[in-house]
Design brief:
- The longest helix is centred in the middle third of the chain and has 21 residues.
- Strand 7 and strand 8 form a beta hairpin.
- About 50% of the residues are buried.
- By secondary structure, this protein is an alpha+beta fold.
- It is globular, with a radius of gyration of 22 Å.
- Helix 4 packs across helix 8 and helix 6 crosses helix 7.
- The chain has 2 domains: about 260 residues, tricorn interacting facor f3 domain (Immunoglobulin-like, Sandwich); about 220 residues, Neutral Protease Domain 2 (Neutral Protease, domain 2, Orthogonal Bundle), CATH 1.10.390.10.
- Helix content is about 25%, strand content about 30%.
Length: about 500
């Protein structure tokens, strides 16, 4: 079978949920990355440069100007309908050298009206190999694809950075299902970015081939590690793992084992991605919040972990009451990794002992924020490459509302940081991630949206009434900027676009 290896320069290292702005080095890396676009296709005779062929890309919907379609009582939502579906069966084996062998079988359904000449995946581990990793990332992953099969037959493929492209000899017709099996080996970089091995605690983020979404074209952009540049739809997962020794397994699944294990099978339905953490030398404390099991893992003292657990239960109960019931039976909080949300599991940095620092940049704020993402990302979907303010802005708004409603902070002290950030932000929301190269990412997408929504609502109850209606109408569907504006206009009876055009790009 023909294999493809790619040689690209680096990508920027910006974590949306770690709340860190662009640096000069990161900007240089992003410029270098965006200036490259080739792969090296290796054959037994010669090596020649080829590129992934042009394939249809999804277009963004235009924002319709003018007054609301109807009052909210008669409002009919118009979410984006995804036009493919993936079902994953993942088999993960780790050896004593912490090298993984993976077999990923992905059932792909074409539920569009189009015939496809290709299938497109994200394969994000390849973005962290020595050839591709950002310069600011010291250590690299090792990735090697041994074979790819399409419906049981060996298939050609192209691998360019994080894009895994399968050309099809016969078109993939509407209503058909195809099976793609990818076999590969993987080592996780030490102190990497989300996909990371930290002191033999292994964090498996975006570790398998992830089907790109399709909507009259493939919605696939280059993985630039700026915010969350990958976009997936809801899928079902079955994951089998075999480890050389017992690890505590924390994952997206609701059926994680209660004790350390060397093997097991996990399942999740209707989630956007599947995350696993294999941890050693961490303590795990747990408690129930209603019918939900809440687990906190970390290396802090037992007393400190229990304090974090109490706070996590408070946050989960609050949002479950104010927004909608938390959709899973288990949630895990890992306190020794950078801040990031995944279905059924979140990661944050270490808490200070005593948790005295509870300001905007604290891990307490990050904890609230990442749990809130279980609704604004987990329950309501959006494309974080083009519509990042929808999930990050609404998540931050819910976080600020928690501080006002639960912690009894005044609006003035709660929004002080956002006001400062907004005052020095000239960038607009609703730009593609790579256009925030010159700054403005945090202000435009995290801080200005909550301030603007507070203007409209003016109170915690009114704000949660708005957010809960949004969750009710769009659960397990995709919202883009055009639809979010349309909904918000109807909810607040806004007759023109002036409110939005002050801070959202209509281009």
């Amino acid at each position: 079978m023909k294999k493809v290896m790619m040689f690209l320069l680096a990508i920027t290292l910006i974590s949306a949920c770690s709340h860190t702005p662009n640096t000069l080095q990161e900007k240089k890396e992003l410029k270098a990355h965006l200036g490259k676009g080739h792969v090296s296709k290796e054959t037994s005779v010669e090596k020649k440069i080829v590129g992934i062929p042009e394939y249809p890309k999804a277009a963004q919907r235009k924002i319709v100007k003018g007054g609301p379609d109807d009052s909210i009582s008669n409002f009919r939502p118009d979410p984006i309908q995804n036009e493919n579906k993936a079902t994953y069966k993942l088999d993960l084996t780790m050896d004593s050298e912490e090298k993984f062998t993976v077999t990923a079988e992905v059932k792909v359904e074409n539920i569009s009206k189009d015939e496809w000449n290709e299938i497109v995946f994200y394969f994000i581990p390849n973005a962290f190999t020595e050839e591709n990793k950002p310069e600011s990332l010291k250590n690299a992953a090792e990735v090697s694809i041994s074979s790819i099969e399409l419906d049981g037959e060996k298939a050609d493929y192209l691998l360019d950075h994080d894009t895994l492209y399968l050309p099809l000899e016969e078109s993939f017709k509407p209503g058909e299902e195809r099976s793609v099996t990818v076999r590969y080996t993987l080592t996780v970089p030490e102190f990497g970015f989300r996909l990371s091995n930290n002191f033999n605690n292994i964090y498996l983020a975006e570790w398998y081939p992830m089907l790109a979404t399709y909507h009259s074209g493939w919605r696939k952009e280059d993985y630039i590690v700026s915010g969350e540049s990958y976009f997936t739809d809801y899928s079902d997962f079955k994951v089998k793992y075999s480890l050389p020794e017992e690890y505590m397994v924390l994952s997206t699944a609701d059926n994680d084992p209660a004790n350390p294990s060397a093997s097991g099978e996990l399942e999740s339905q209707n989630v956007k991605e599947f995350y696993m953490a294999l941890i050693k030398n961490m303590e795990v404390v747990q408690q129930t919040a209603g019918d939900v099991e809440v687990r906190v893992a970390g290396v802090a003292s037992t007393e400190s972990l229990k304090q974090i657990l109490d706070k996590s239960v408070n946050v989960l109960n609050y949002f479950s009451a104010k927004l909608s019931p938390y959709p899973q039976k288990q949630i895990d909080i890992i306190t020794d990794e950078g801040g990031m949300e995944y279905p059924g599991i979140v990661t944050i940095g270490p808490f200070n002992e005593g948790h005295k620092d509870e300001g905007r940049g604290s891990q307490y704020f990050a904890l609230i924020h990442e749990i809130a993402h279980q609704w604004f990302y987990g329950t309501v979907n959006n494309d974080p490459y083009y519509d990042v303010f929808i999930d990050e802005g609404l998540t931050n708004f819910a976080t600020y509302l928690f501080l006002i409603g639960h912690d009894k902070k005044t609006p003035e002290e709660t929004f002080a940081f956002a006001e400062q950030h907004a005052a020095r932000t000239t960038a607009l929301a609703h730009l593609p991630l790579h256009e925030y190269l010159n700054g403005g990412f945090m202000g435009a997408n995290y801080e200005i949206p909550p301030l603007k929504l507070w203007e409209l609502t003016g109170g915690e109850k009114e704000a949660f009434d708005y957010l809960s209606k949004y969750v009710e109408l769009y659960s397990y569907q995709e919202v883009d900027t055009a639809e979010w504006i349309r909904f918000t206009k109807s909810y607040f009876k806004l007759n023109d676009d002036q409110f939005f055009q002050e801070w959202i790009s209509y281009e």
